[in-house]
Amino acid sequence: MKRIAIALGLLLLTRGAAQAQAEFEPTSAERATIAACLERTAGEPELKQMSDCIGLIADPCPDAPGANTFTIVACHTREQKIWDGYLNDRYGEAQSRLKDQPGAAAALKEAQRTWIQFRDAKCDYWEKLYEGGTFASVAAGDCMRVETGRRALEMHAIAGDLDH
After folding, report:
1. What is the CATH number of domain 2-161?
2. Residues near 44 by beta carbon (within 8 Å), at least 6 away in sequence
3. How far apart are CA 150 and CA 156, in angstroms?
4. Which one is predicted more confidently, 163 or 151?
5. What is the model's pTM?
6. Chain centroid to CA 138: how far?
7. CA distances (Å), 101 to each of 2, 94, 107, 162, in order?
8. Which residue among 21, 29, 58, 112 is buried most deeply as judged by most CB within 10 Å?
9. Whole-angstrom Cα distance, residue 57 to residue 141?
C-alpha cells in the first residue's frame, strides 16, 4: 500500500511538472498570431513591426482572469520562444547568404554573440533591480521577450538587405 501511495505521488508530481512545463511552450495559435502580424506588417519599418507585433501574446496576460506571477512569466516565455525561433531562422538565412563573404559572416556571428551578452546583461539588471520580490522574474522575462523580438526583427532586416 505504501508503495502504491509513493508511486501515485510520483506520478502526480511528474504530471504536474509536465503540465507546468507545457505552460512555457508556445501554442500553434500563438505562433500563428505572431506570424500573421509579421505578414500584415511586412514591408513596414522595423519600429512599426516592433510596436505592432512584440507583445501580442504576453501583453494581455496580466489582465487575464486568474493571472499571477507564474502565468505572466509563462506568457513572456512563450512569446520569447516564438521570437527566438524567428531570430534563429533569420540568422541562418543571413549566414547562408553570406557564404561567399566569410569576413562578413564572421562579423555577423560576432555581432550576434555580443548581442546575446548584451541582452543577458540588460535583463539581469532588471532581475537584480527587483531581486527578492516576485516582480523580478516578471521584469526579467519581459526584458528577454522584448529584446529577443527586437533582435529578431532587426535580423529579418539584415537578412532582407542581403537580397539586394
Report:
1. 1.20.1270.180
2. 52
3. 10
4. 151
5. 0.84
6. 13
7. 66, 11, 10, 11
8. 58
9. 13
